[in-house]
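Fill in residues.
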């Protein structure tokens, strides 16, 4: 059997769930490859910026790495804008959603809020309050989010910067995204459950 035969979950048995679980774990383990494939979609159109989003992501990760950030933070830097093409209106949610099961909740918060924090550098050009991030000054992730945006994210639009290639970061992404996810299903039970 390489495929379940049930027509709805009420007909499913343990063996079918075991098969699906097996296939799902392979699928999960392949997620880093698919995530990086998607990151490549950010290459090409610069949308008017000095570099395209792919280059920007690589540069942000390179700066984080060279500043001594830990591996998890470097991966956050690499993937923080991966939602740009799918969800331009709330792109930070996409990266936060992808990374959240595998990383420190404070880093997930940082990714989720990086757009507002980054806005310190441009919101006033649009008539908005550039200091809006100050509402989170007492949050435990405030300092790291400011540092992320000020030192690495907003600084990474330099076409002449010595940016590391994606290959440099692939093993890091593989290690972080194949951690045991928070909230994942435990191993399947040995026998058919009673009910
Ligand atoms: Fe960015």
């Amino acid at each position: 059997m390489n495929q379940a035969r049930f027509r709805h979950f009420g007909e499913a048995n343990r063996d079918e769930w075991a098969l699906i679980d097996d296939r799902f774990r392979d699928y999960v383990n392949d997620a880093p490859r698919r995530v990086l494939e998607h990151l490549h979609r950010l290459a090409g159109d610069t949308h008017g910026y000095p570099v395209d989003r792919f280059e920007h992501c690589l540069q942000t990760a390179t700066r984080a790495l060279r500043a001594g950030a830990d591996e998890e933070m470097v991966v956050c830097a690499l993937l923080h804008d991966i939602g740009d093409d799918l969800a331009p209106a709330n792109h930070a949610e996409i990266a936060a959603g992808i990374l959240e099961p595998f990383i420190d909740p404070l880093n997930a918060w940082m990714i989720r809020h990086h757009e507002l924090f980054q806005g310190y550098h441009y919101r006033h050009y649009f008539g908005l309050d550039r200091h809006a991030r100050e509402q989170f000054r007492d949050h435990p992730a405030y300092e790291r989010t400011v540092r992320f945006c000020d030192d690495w994210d907003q600084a990474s639009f330099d076409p002449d910067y010595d940016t590391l290639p994606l290959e440099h970061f692939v093993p890091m992404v593989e290690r972080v995204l194949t951690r045991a996810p928070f909230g994942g299903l435990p191993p399947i039970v040995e026998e058919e459950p009673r009910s």
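Helices lie at 14-29, 31-40, 53-66, 71-79, 91-99, 105-118, 142-153, 170-177.
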